[in-house]
């Protein structure tokens, strides 16, 4: 008998045994169902959160470098104290960057503060006020839904104009068009010239509650802040990102007059740092979750192994007869491995049927996605669990002496 014929025969015998012991088969699959449901929900939650996070930081362009005092990565208390002693970035330094950088497409100085914004008797509460230039449209990955963004004349002049986020437009103006209306920031009136497209959120903070005003107007309102929080540098070509970063680093050291060997008193951040930090944290969470789900599968696998031992004991005489008429050890081994794998695969399919509606419910609270990859992993885990759990009982059945097996009652 060839291998394919043995598999076909094993499938037939396994399904007959499962149908003959329906209640026992159902009870056996419960542990596997719980484990696979847990694995599937963990996978959908992690996949959904990964996708949502990547989408939420898409505004932090892969081709944009951020010059700041602070590093985005984790650092010790000593590092934090050292960072706090760094000098702020000045507008004069930005002017030098604009003169000397050759690999950049746009350079936007950015300062920010929290203030309420009001329109008539409505108030948005405290929102982020960004003071910047017209190039922030490119470095910040902004798109305008209505009106226009700041122009070069707006950034250079003293005209009080602003561009507002999507949430502010909805909350303050309801169905009324905000274009041309006057809003109040601090004690100053600003004309709304544009509304930004929705950007989403990051770390629990929505990015649609922001107001963009010319940098000169920002400094005139917030008189106690004369320095910048950040300089955004958009690279001309993504392929030149590392060269552009090296050039930016060199020019920054030069304009800040740092001696050779003196440590940097600034940081150059980029999107990859946030992604690396997130994936590191997500990996730890996933590892803990998979350890817990692994315990569930281990318990389920022990249940499968016990039931398979019972099945082997009940069918000892059948095994003896099959061996007496010429069945090989491999044939017996395959028969019981297929039976264990079939039970687990049934449990895995039932688990996916349970996990699907739960995933749809989870979407109301967090971004969960049951992708084909997650489904494939769940099926593969079910199959492997069945094969591993059934291996020892199947091996024991295959090693039985046919004479001793035939004597069994």
Description of the structure:
With 409 residues, this protein is α+β, with helices and mostly antiparallel strands. Helix content is 56%, strand content 17%. It is built from 14 helices and 12 strands. The chain has a 6-stranded mixed β-barrel with strand order 2-3-10-5-7-6. It has a two-stranded antiparallel ribbon with strand order 8-9. Strand 2 and strand 3 form a beta hairpin.
Topology pattern, helix = H, strand = E: HHEHHEEHEHEHEEEEEHEHEHHHHH
Low-confidence regions: none
Our Rg estimate from Cα atoms comes to 33 Å
Distance between the termini: 29 Å
* Average of per-residue pLDDT values: 80
Question: Which class of secondary structure composition applies to the elements?
Answer: alpha+beta
Tell me the number of helical segments per DSSP (H or I, 4 or more residues long): 14
Strand neighbour order, sheet with most strands: 2-3-10-5-7-6
Q: Roughly what percent helix?
A: 55-70%
User: How can the largest sheet be summarized?
Assistant: 6 strands, mixed, barrel
Beta-strand percentage?
15-25%
Number of domains: 2
Q: How many strand units? A: 12
Shape: elongated
């Amino acid at each position: 008998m060839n291998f394919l014929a043995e598999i076909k025969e094993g499938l037939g015998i396994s399904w007959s045994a499962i149908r003959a012991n329906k209640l026992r088969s159902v009870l056996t699959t419960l542990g596997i169902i719980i484990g696979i449901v847990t694995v599937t929900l963990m996978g959908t939650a992690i996949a959904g959160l990964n996708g949502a996070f990547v989408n939420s930081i898409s505004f932090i362009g892969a081709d944009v470098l951020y010059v700041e005092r602070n590093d985005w990565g984790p650092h010790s208390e000593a590092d934090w104290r050292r960072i706090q002693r760094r000098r702020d970035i000045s507008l004069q330094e930005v002017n030098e960057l604009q003169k000397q950088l050759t690999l950049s497409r746009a350079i936007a100085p950015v300062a920010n503060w929290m203030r309420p914004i009001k329109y008539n008797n409505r108030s948005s509460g405290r929102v982020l006020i960004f003071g910047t230039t017209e190039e922030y449209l490119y470095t910040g990955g902004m798109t305008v839904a209505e009106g226009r963004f700041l122009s070069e004349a707006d950034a250079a002049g003293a005209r009080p104009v602003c561009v507002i986020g999507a949430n502010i437009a909805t909350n303050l103006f309801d169905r009324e068009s905000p274009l041309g209306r006057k809003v109040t920031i601090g004690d100053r009136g600003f004309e709304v010239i544009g509304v930004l497209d929705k950007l989403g959120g990051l770390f629990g903070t929505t990015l649609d509650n922001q107001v963009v005003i010319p940098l000169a107007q920002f400094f005139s309102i917030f008189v106690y802040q004369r320095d910048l929080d950040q300089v955004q540098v958009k690279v001309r070509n993504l392929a030149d990102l590392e060269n552009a970063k090296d050039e930016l680093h060199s020019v920054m050291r030069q304009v800040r007059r740092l001696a050779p060997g003196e440590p940097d008193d600034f940081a150059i951040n980029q999107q990859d740092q946030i992604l690396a930090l997130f994936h590191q944290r997500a990996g730890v969470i996933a590892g803990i979750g998979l350890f817990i789900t692994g315990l569930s599968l281990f318990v389920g696998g022990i249940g499968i192994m016990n039931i398979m031992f019972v099945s082997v004991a009940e069918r000892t005489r059948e095994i003896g007869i099959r061996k007496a008429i010429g069945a090989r050890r491999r044939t017996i081994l395959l028969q019981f491995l297929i039976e264990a794998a079939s039970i687990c695969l049934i449990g895995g399919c039932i688990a996916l049927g349970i996990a699907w509606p739960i995933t749809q419910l989870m979407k109301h609270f967090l971004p969960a996605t049951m992708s084909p990859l997650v489904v494939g992993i769940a099926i593969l885990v079910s199959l492997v669990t069945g094969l591993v759990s059934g291996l020892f009982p199947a091996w024991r059945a295959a090693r039985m002496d046919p004479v001793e097996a035939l004597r069994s009652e």
